[in-house]
Amino acid sequence: MQTAEEACAQLEDELLFCEDCRLYFRDSCPQHGAPTFILDTPVPENVPSRALLSLPEGLVVKERSQGGFGVWGTIPIIPRGCFFGPYEGEILVDRSECTVYSWAIRDNGSYFYIDASDDSKSSWMRYVACASTEEEHNLTVFQYRGKIYYRACQPIPSGTELLVWIGEEYARTLGLKLGEHFKYEFGEKELLMKLFQDLHLKTLDSLPNHITTRSQYVCNDMVTPLIQSHKQSYPINNVGHSSSGFQLLEGTQNLVSLGRAQSRYWTFFGFQGDAYGRIIDKTKIICKLCGVRLSYSGNTTNLRQHLIYKHRREYNELVGTQGAVVEPQKNIESVSPRELPSRAVVTPTVGRTTKAVADFIVRDLMPIEIIEGEGFVQMLSILDPNYKLPAASFLAHTILKEMHIQAKLKVMELVKHLQECSVSLDLWKHSGSLSYLTLTIHYVTEAFESKNTVLSSRVVSEDLSEESLKLVLQDVADEWGIRENTFYAVGLSSPSVKIAASKVGWKSLPCVGQVLKNCIEAILQHHTIQTTLDRFRRLIATIFSSAAQNEELTTHGPVLKVHLKMFLRDGTKWYSIYTLLQSIVDHSKFFKGLIETLNEDGISLQPEDWSILQDVVDILKPLSIATSTFTKDQFAGLSLVKPVITSLLYKHLAPNESDSEFSKNIKKAIHEELTFKYSDSEVNQVLNLACALDPRFRGLDFLSQPDRVETLHLLKLEASSLAKIQTVEPICVTPEPQNSRPPSKKAKQDTGIEFLLGDLCNVRNASASTVNQQAEQEISSFQTSEASSLCQDPLQWWKMHHTQYPLLARAARKLLAIPATSVPTNWLFTDAGLAVYRKRSALTAEHVDMLVFLNGNRLFI
């Protein structure tokens, strides 16, 4: 039979504590928002020194003066309320195996231990020392969802050691007796180990008969229904309402009521008493229905409010107004959305859970209909038996629609104030004959931070006709008001896309990811290469079919074996084929030995096959490095394109005397493809301008002298033009009353020397220089200054130096905002893109625009 303490212990395992408002919460604090978890640095298991490698940024492990190691903060301050964890290690069930690196975890009344003795299986938290006194601690240990975490209970300045202390929460986890005068003076971890020795003796029956907390509520609003599911009916003999018939928690018969209490609300509340029935603490009162501890100040306001919001049914029965209140479990679809704001039919629990379901749909880009699936319904019924899951149609047309509207308003407000931006055009296949075009805007903020925001997804004709694309672009541009402040569109380099973009007033730029993809796929589709890869595929299949050869492959190269399995399963993926072929060439001797051992017809590889593989690897290497160069950021900047393409054309893929005939032909084909894609003179001008504003490439050394001169001239015109636009922009100023203006002063009379020499000797000052002259001066200074490191972020450089070049800084915000690719680079160069498009294609057509928008703009939700 479960007691109030047992129920609350289970529920407390699901709650977090806010150090600021001193309240427990689930998922998000009502006052201070979502909690901050400081994540460990990801490190695989069983890696030597894994604990040290998992240390988050901003922390350092050092030797303590007392001996051993400790953890210190290196950032200016670790805010109060941050969470660290979970504590990692090995699971122990034998208390004799526990060490000073062990913590006990309670699970349904019994205990097991998590031990971090092995630094290859644990995390950095093993190095956090226990405080010697309560005054010096800055971390509190607690159990959350069956795992151990540390919480910063006060701000931790830089250079301060992190010291953990066992507080009231973990004391309850250990089943220690609680009380106002109880002190948790455990000190060093060795003393706490003595308490662990007794945990096997503790059962649920031996736990204390009450639960205390430092906050107004022990149990969060969201978990009240779970507590109610564990209620039992017992007679209450000493409370004064023995015939009430309400289901009260076991043990609450020992609570003491006020002798003078007359309010009916006292039916459900009482104080903790001692053995003689005397009230121990009159500032805290306990609910007999759920065990929650409330603050008591002499009136019943808190009591009444708690009953109304947490125990509506019991409250209605108590005051005799049950028929006047709508049950929370009523089908929410029967209530008009317009009535929702004025009718209290949805409890806070239902609202939070429904919002969590909506967030799940948005974050994971799931079909809305998934919530009606049998497995999803069963999972929620287990997590919260009292929750009524809304229909998919209600979720789509109310909750998600409202999220969509609110997020769009925020994005529209943002877009309205953008001076310049660019767009990327993501053309993708949905299902059947449906194709979509998703537009994303890209811009650089005044703080020189690169941002991107998804706008809309529209259906386009299957043949991607120029007219269909033009109508979509015009529709989206007019809807969001971006036609005038958008200059460039990055996407497919097809003629229809170029013409459609130009009719909207945008210059179309090719996606470098698509260009590189076409080059690599052209190599792989070459007949000679296809034949060689087919032979090797047969060889690999034969190796895997032989137990002895398979075992030898596992012993020789487990990573190679993984690559070969992927090759058999997925074929030749353009973005990963280089890694596979390089691995094959590196293990050529091993494969040649296997071929001799097998001695089967049809699976042998000739010397010319190995020669072809080597040539392909040599050609693919610079292309592979080029793709990886663009994956540093979510959207790489356009300024990278020209230097990378130029290095491929004239250095890494240039013909060489030692090249085989096959290699020469492949390089020639790639050279022609890259040259064709970037043959447009206007495209090259934009690429050159972006490079001229990138501090890494400001010297433009990869351009010919005529192109360099032309680029600097265009840059001067661009910077001057933007400066003039900014100058004539209207400034909203409240007009002053005419009579408020001061009387105009008389014109200043010339002095004698000004009268005589004023026409001959004009005074020159900075204000006399034109915008063009200023732009020219800035360009000259920028060009002759020292180039930045190739690894430096150009926007970070501009963030520090924009005041030195105010005109160029404006141009940099415009041109460095242009992305090099039409989609995030990891979508192009990894399997991530396949996963995203697979999810998109599973969405119902009517929900595509809404869900793709919300998924791409989660910061605005």
Automatic annotation (TrEMBL):
Domain BED-type: 260-318
Boundaries of every SET domain copy: 57-167
A single Gene Ontology CC term: nucleus
Residue ranges of coiled coil: none
Main location: nucleus
UniProt xrefs under PANTHER family: DNA REPLICATION-RELATED ELEMENT FACTOR, ISOFORM A (PTHR46169), E3 SUMO-PROTEIN LIGASE ZBED1 (PTHR46169:SF2)
Protein name as catalogued: Zinc finger BED domain-containing protein 1-like
Protein's organism: Eleutherodactylus coqui (Puerto Rican coqui)
Taxonomic lineage from the root: Eukaryota, Metazoa, Chordata, Craniata, Vertebrata
